[in-house]
Write the structure tokens for this entry.
Amino acid sequence: MDIEYELNNKCEEMSNMKENHVTRWKVRFFSLWTGQALSLISSELVQFSLIWWLTDTTNSAFVLAISTMIALLPKAILGPLIGALSDRWNRRVVLIVSDIIIALSLVFLIFSFSTGNIQIWHIYIVILIRAIGGTFHMSAMLASTSLMVPQKYLSRVAGLNQMMNGVVMVVGPPLGALLINLMSISNILVFDIVGAILAVVPLLFITIPQQRSKTSPAISNSIWKNVREGFRYIKKWSGAVEVLTISTLINFIMRPAFSLIAILVINQFKGTEVEFGLMGAAIGAGFFLGGMVLSFWGGFSRKMQTSLTAIVGAGVALFVVSLAPPNAFILGLGAIFTASFMMPLCMGPIEALIQSSVDPSLQGRIFSIMNSASTLISPLSLAIGGLIFDSLGSQIWYLCGGISAMIIGIIGFTQMKILNFGDPQLSSCGVREIKTRGSI
């Protein structure tokens, strides 16, 4: 009886320790995550307000194109370098400093608006600072997640991130439009400063582990060597180049499909701003619900099976959009919702696979390189998509894009390197990658 009593006590003690451990990581991580989420919403309000101010003041597509390029290029061109730096530096400090610098740039902008000395180039400078700071922030946050969250929860956290992106897409524009009608742009900019404060405060009390592998090159003297090592790691990682190619191609297809939705509404469905608003809301709701499903479900045990299934599903949805007649707006609306619903299920598992397979000391570089490729393709896809939308009609893009996505997904299922990507038991190299992930 005494032995049984002691065993029961030990089992209860171990259960309590496990429960406390789970509670601790959840409190630490979600305190950080909540602050970052609020900051993301406030940033979207400011971004919307600045774009609207540029549009209302200049009525120039060229000015808007320049601002878009300034926002995209740091992530596309400087991403690998920024990723290498965030791997070398303390990621907690990177998060704090990037938020503070973004807030200080807004103080400059508030002063310029308040004194009536605002110039277009002031907006460009702030957009550039926000883009660079945001790239540092994203790289450090994604790499820190795998050090704070147990591996089995990474897919669900990735789903939460995708869900938050959907919330921002749904809430940001209408809330920004409402605030523009209620207050001056200077007052709107204050929201993002408050958001930055909310993001920084938890970081003052939370420590983020800074793991460095003994074999990792993260402390190399040459930053350019660090960048090259990131590219070399992807090249040698079984299936990584193929998955990077798939991610880039899907981004190429989907960027115009979602960004040029207004042309689809006007030309194909003969709609007005009401239908355009419904389409925008459907895209945001799809991202939100897709992220929610992934956060609760976690995906199939083989993560790439989830991604490839979602790619095929998104392709079918785009194909349906292309076939929808002018009087079938509801069908088109449902198909666009389905396509956006599939995107978190496509990208979230890939994010989780990188976090669970790559040494944390290398993750900043790997994430930045993969995000750079997707971002760099965006201006090209929008340019090509715009020409096709104008010359051949929007239905051609959705038809060809839908068929292409379905083919990409189906081919992925036939390639074991892709299907088993990141799976230590099923990897084609026959070695548990998590044990060798620090070596290049």
